[in-house]
Amino acid sequence: MDQKILPASSSMKEFERFLISPYKIGVFLDMHIAQLKNIDKMAKEHDKQMIYHVDLIHGIKNDEYATEYICQEYKPFGLISTKSSVILKAKQKGVIAVQRIFLIDTHALEKNYKILEKTKPDYIEVLPGAMPWMIEEVRTRVKTPIFAGGLIRTREEVRNALLAGASAITTSKTDLWEM
């Protein structure tokens, strides 16, 4: 993926800003299932590719059945989830699968490594992404491209995450979209 910033929207206002941006790929974080049809239609009208965060679509369970429905009905570019079943189903449906992991402590990290071995996602989204040394460790250990997200607030933190090996940064901070 060549795009280094993945604009993340959690409101229609942010999404509309993404639609007029030069970026081709965006992430939608937080929506109601009733919004999905309109968001998908608007994205396609603007020639944008969307990655939907399945865990944050309200009104639908974040499981393999919901994943199958979203893939068949909307054909997204990708899906993000913390759930292994969602990642495996997305891969089966030929959709980019992004496994979101949280860097809480060593125990959680080791548990995530075991999950990643089983799911083999296309990308891993590491949160918080403002820890370059952890991005480097995860990328080296699992040899899967990394998206860094969460708590990245400055241009310097974006640069540090990219220098540490992140393929892209997911951010809802619109001032960082201008990089």
Structural key phrases:
single chain; 179 residues; alpha/beta; TIM Barrel; 8-stranded parallel beta barrel; two-stranded parallel ribbon; 7 helices; 10 strands
Helical residue percent band = 40-55%
Largest sheet: 8 strands, parallel, barrel
Q: How does the helix and strand content classify structurally?
A: alpha/beta
| Spans where pLDDT lies below 50 across 5 or more residues | none
CATH architecture: Alpha-Beta Barrel
Count of individual helical segments: 7
Q: What is the number of domains?
A: 1
Average pLDDT value?
97
Note the quaternary state here: single chain
CATH class designation: Alpha Beta
Give the CA-based shape.
globular
Protein name: Glycerol uptake operon antiterminator regulatory protein
Pfam family, one: G3P_antiterm
Keywords: Glycerol metabolism, RNA-binding, Transcription, Transcription regulation
Function: Regulates expression of the glpD operon. In the presence of glycerol 3-phosphate (G3P) causes antitermination of transcription of glpD at the inverted repeat of the leader region to enhance its transcription. Binds and stabilizes glpD leader mRNA.
In short:
The chain is α/β, with parallel strands linked by helices and 179 residues long.
What does it look like?
The protein has 179 residues and is α/β, with parallel strands linked by helices. It has one domain (5-178): Aldolase class I (TIM Barrel), CATH 3.20.20. 42% of the residues lie in helices and 25% in strands. The protein contains 7 helices and 10 strands. The chain has helices spanning 12-19, 33-45, 64-74, 84-92, 106-119, 132-142, 155-163, and strands at 5-9, 25-28, 31-32, 49-53, 57-58, 78-81, 96-102, 123-127, 146-149, 166-171. An 8-stranded parallel beta barrel has the order 1-2-4-6-7-8-9-10, surrounded by 6 helices. Strands 3-5 form a two-stranded parallel sheet. The chain starts with a strand and ends in an 8-residue tail after the last strand.
